[in-house]
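REQUEST FORM: STRUCTURE PREDICTION
Request ID: SP-0412
Submitted by: Lab K.M.
Chain count: 1
Length (residues): 392
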Amino acid sequence: MSNTPSIERIDTFPCTYGTDRERMSFLYVRVTATDGTVGWGEVCDSYGCSYAGVIGHLIDEVFAPLIVGQPLVSVDLLADRMRLFTRRRLGDAWIAPQARSGIEIALWDLMGQATGRSVSSLLGRTADRVEVYASSGFLEEGPAEHHYEGLRPLLERGVRKVKVRTGPEWRSDLDTLRKLRPMLGADVELMVDASETYTLPTARALATALTEFDVQWIEEPLPQSERAGIEALVAHSPVPVAYGEHMFGLDDALDALRRRQLDVLQPDAATAGGISEARRMAMAAPAFGVRVVPHVCSGPAALAANLHLAASVPGIRLIEYPPTLLPVWDTFGTGAALGLDAIDDGHLTVPETAGLGVGIDEGACADHPYEAPGARVAGTTTGLPDRFVGDR
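STATUS: Completed
RESULT:
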């Protein structure tokens, strides 16, 4: 124990990057050990980290003091320390587990480097590469040709699963999808993300309409908090229903699994409390006959964390891969390649180097200072403040 390094400091790096669609924010977490080793983590709040300054402050004020000075013996022990010291005051949902996620991922990165092993090797690697699906934008953003051109580079790399997004005007979205479907090819599987937009009657109507396209799942058609409505939808939906990117740990997942509130579970290591917590969620799902496909919609550390998660759970065969984030991964990421050139036959290789295999370029963070979102509505192109709270 005398040679075991301790945690010396924890630093947060909130930043904002303008993609082709909109400005997105990210929060990277650096944990430094007393031996000088550095581990990187990341926080995701479903779509990057919109309020990165808020969560960064939470890490600085609440969680860093609980971890600094502690020996790097067990990541799970340190994660439990963060949770148990704060759960009665900050709770077990939303920004508290999101903040803990960034630190926990960085601790796994540190532990891997201390042992010379990858994170998935430490957890028990069951796969060396993982299939990805192309996670595209809202169908309202353009005609079918626009969406096909955005997806074509991934299709050329062997990706054979594609997800598109519907909005309030879902009937016109389906008209666009009707034109896009034959462009993708008969061998390409299709999924639809509804982004918590609808009420139960509309979700039922959309699910029925989607049978035309043989979709693999409809994702988050109702707001995550409307559990009774979700349960009613799942009981009669003609297509599978997916939830999970807004679930925070095993208890949350078990509640939904026991109540049959989902057919596909989508945990995210950068959201749910960390890699270990997302892994516990994933390991519970097969007993309920539920498929597991991790959510990924943030920067390079979050993608790498979910790759290692997927590579350590036998039931995970597929993860999300949003091409709109390619410039983000290229700008901020160091280490293992995660871009288009890294996709082979529709799969990404899991990094084999120590830790996550991915780091963060601090200079890039400095070049992209954080901007609070203000009145901007994250995840939209039109900025409608009510687009996620009802039907048209």
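NOTES: The mean pLDDT is 95.
Reviewed by: T.R.
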